[in-house]
Structures are given as C-alpha cells and as structure tokens.
Amino acid sequence: MSTPATSAAPAAPAAAPKAPSSPFMNGNVIDGKAVAAKIREETAAKVAELKAKFGKVPGLAVVIVGERKDSQTYVRMKKKACEEVGIASFGADLPDTATQDEVLAVVAGFNANPDVHGILVQLPLPKHIDEQAVLGAISVEKDVDGFQPLNIGRLAMKGREPLFTPCTPLGCMVLLERCGIPIKGKRAVVVGRSNIVGMPAALLLNKRDATVTVVHSATPKAEAEAICLQADIIIAAAGQAQLVRGSWVKPGAAVIDVGTNPIDDKTKASGYRLVGDAHFEECKAVAGAITPVPGGVGPMTIAILIRNTADSGERFITGAVKVSGAGRQRKGLAKLIPTREQLASPLPLLAAAVGVAAGAVLQRATAGRR
Ligand code: NAP
C-alpha cells in the first residue's frame, strides 16, 4: 500500500554554479603553466615537422635597446623559450645611446633576412626613440607581436583575419578555449583598454561572438563593479592591484587576470610579491574559473609568441608569403600602407589612393556578375 504524499517535496537548494571541467584546471583554478606547456609542445612538433620536410626552422629576432634589467630578463626568457622548441634565435643588443636611425637599420636588416620570420622589439624603448616609428618599420609579415596597425585593423574587421594577434590577449582566449569556457553569446567585460592588452582582448572576444563591454579609468568604480557583475567572462587588465573584488563577480563567471602588480610583503625575502588586478581569494570563492598570479596568463604570453613565430616560419618556409628584396613584401592589404617615400612625396600616394578607389568601384560594379 502506498502512502499518499502529504506535502510537496522540499525544493532542492540552488545548485552551486558548476566549474567547467578541464585537464588544465585544479578545481576552479586555471593552470596557465600547463596550458602554456601544451602550446610549447605543439609548437615544438610543428618546428620539427618543418625541419624534417624542408630542412629549415622558423627564426625569431629580438631587438633590445638599453640596459633595463627587466627587459633583459624578458629577452633571455624569450630566447630560451625559442631554443627549447627548436626556433632559431637572432638578436641585436643596442646601447641606451643608440640613435633611432640605428635601431631602424637593425629592424630593416632583420626584415631583409630570409632566416628571420618574426621580429620583436622589446618595449619600452629609451625616451629619445619614437616607439611608433620603430614598431611601424617591422615588416607586417614578421610582426609576431601583432602590434602593427594593419594586423590590429584586420583583427577589428568582420571577415578579416590578422597575420598575427597580440600574444597576451590571445593567451587569454586560449586559456578560455582550452578550459572549455564558452564565449559565443556570453557577456564579457574587459577592464582596461591599452593597445597591447585591453583593446585587442575586447576585439578578440567580439570576434568570438561575445557581447563585449570595456571599462577604463574614466568609468566610475561603482559602475565598473555593476557592469562586471553582469559578466560571464571578466578579463582584468588595468594594472591596478586587486581592483576586481569578489563582489564584482557573478557566481560561476570566469576571471582572467592579466595584471602583475608588485605589493609589499615582508614575509618574502625580496620584500614584495606579485598580485593580479583581481583579488584572488575573494574572486576564487565566487568564480567558476580563475587564473592565479603568477602562473595564469603570464606563461601564456611567451608560449603564444613562439607559436606566432612558428606559424610565421611555416608561412615563409612553405612559400605562402615571400621575402622581397627589401624584406617587405607589399601585397594585399599591405599595399594600402603608404611607404615613407610616398609620405615624403604625396603625389604617388594620391595616385595610389585613386587607384584603390577605382579598384573598389570596379569591384562593386562587377560584384553582381560573378
Ligand atoms: P596600461 O597600458 O597601463 O593600461 C591600463 C589600462 O587600464 C588603461 O586602459 C586604463 O584606462 C585602465 N585602467 C586604469 N585604471 C583603471 C581603473 N581603476 N578601472 C578600470 N580601468 C582602469 O597597462 P597594460 O599594459 O594594458 O597592462 C595591464 C596589466 O597587465 C599590468 O599589470 C601589466 O603589468 C600586466 N601585463 C601582464 C602581461 C603578462 O604577460 N602577464 C602582459 C602585459 C601586461 P585608460 O585607458 O583610461 O588610461
């Protein structure tokens, strides 16, 4: 005989948001070192394959100007990472007193060197050197940092793909993807809008069909908090220690913390420790996934740099792009960038612009007939 139910079963407690399961996560903490190690392993395999098939390996040239200790450490780490995966590393170590023309001449040399497939100028440059002029002189086909306006422009445009994407923001995206965190249709907030992290991160999220909001230094803090609280994904890149608090994070959201900020810590021999732009303990208690600092985004930056270099090497070695005599092949969209000579004498530039406009009109006129 069955007993009639006397009351409805009590409602189950609201399930805690489920952390995505991934071999790259410990609980809800993303292991950036493990993802980076996997990327390096994949890159090493690609380099070995190119060597076996074509007898050539990708090459990365790193240009450093001055004696900044932190820059020298980063350059050493980049060269070591190259060696570990079989990428040939080239370098130019210029003194603080180097002139802009000397730096430009070094870049031009690497542009023309067929064994170099990626060129990176370590920033910051000494104050007397125009950073934009130097970065702009790197061949678009060798711009492994992805900072060339043409590469950024293509990242921003629908239906276009850049040859290279900036390493740190792409590293953030790879962490999300490898950890199985959905992006398409999700709300994402990027805290910060710098040219090297925040802005390209927002463009990448947009390209992957997230609905993106950017907050910056002029966003009132309470508003930034309210906006972040709506987000499924937060990328924190403000350079402000522990700006993003637990109260900013929607339960189950992913927090990708790019920040690396030294704060005083008397328990450390160095007297300081690094913290992110998110308050790790508070955010970890609420987030579905979070990157630690250090050990989250940091290791990804170099891993993506060597992957970008290997991809570039593959393009050159297989003949998908070629080094012209001047080291800079001006084809496709690159043709639209005025050369220094064109800027000095606007007439050819005008002619080129008229030619491009005429081409566009002709293309539109013939589009329906194809
Ligand atoms: P940045 O050039 O100083 O830019 C900081 C951005 O954050 C700016 O857009 C700024 O807004 C915004 N911002 C500043 N205060 C803010 C606030 N209170 N609320 C919201 N936005 C704020 O720094 P970055 O080069 O992008 O780097 C950001 C952080 O990432 C730094 O800690 C840096 O060390 C770290 N980083 C790490 C790696 C890595 O590999 N792990 C690589 C690169 C950078 P405005 O535009 O209005 O000034």
Automatic annotation (TrEMBL):
UniProt keyword 4Fe-4S present: no
PROSITE patterns recorded: THF_DHG_CYH_2
Keywords: Hydrolase, Multifunctional enzyme, NADP, One-carbon metabolism, Oxidoreductase
A molecular-function term among this protein's GO annotations: methenyltetrahydrofolate cyclohydrolase activity
Residues annotated as domain Tetrahydrofolate dehydrogenase/cyclohydrolase NAD(P)-binding: 166-312
Pathway annotation: One-carbon metabolism; tetrahydrofolate interconversion
Catalytic activity: (6R)-5,10-methylene-5,6,7,8-tetrahydrofolate + NADP(+) = (6R)-5,10-methenyltetrahydrofolate + NADPH; (6R)-5,10-methenyltetrahydrofolate + H2O = (6R)-10-formyltetrahydrofolate + H(+)
Occurrences of domain Tetrahydrofolate dehydrogenase/cyclohydrolase catalytic (ranges): 30-145
Highest classification ranks of the organism: Eukaryota, Viridiplantae, Chlorophyta, core chlorophytes, Chlorophyceae
Entries under Pfam families matching the protein: THF_DHG_CYH, THF_DHG_CYH_C
Function: Catalyzes the oxidation of 5,10-methylenetetrahydrofolate to 5,10-methenyltetrahydrofolate and then the hydrolysis of 5,10-methenyltetrahydrofolate to 10-formyltetrahydrofolate.
Family: Belongs to the tetrahydrofolate dehydrogenase/cyclohydrolase family.
The protein's assembly and partners: Homodimer.
Renumbered residue ranges of the record's region Disordered: 1-23
Listed GO biological process terms: tetrahydrofolate interconversion
Species, as recorded: Chlamydomonas incerta
CDD domains xrefs: NAD_bind_m-THF_DH_Cyclohyd
Protein name in UniProt: Methenyltetrahydrofolate cyclohydrolase
HAMAP family with a match to the protein in the record: THF_DHG_CYH (MF_01576)
One cellular component term from this protein's GO annotations in UniProt: cytosol
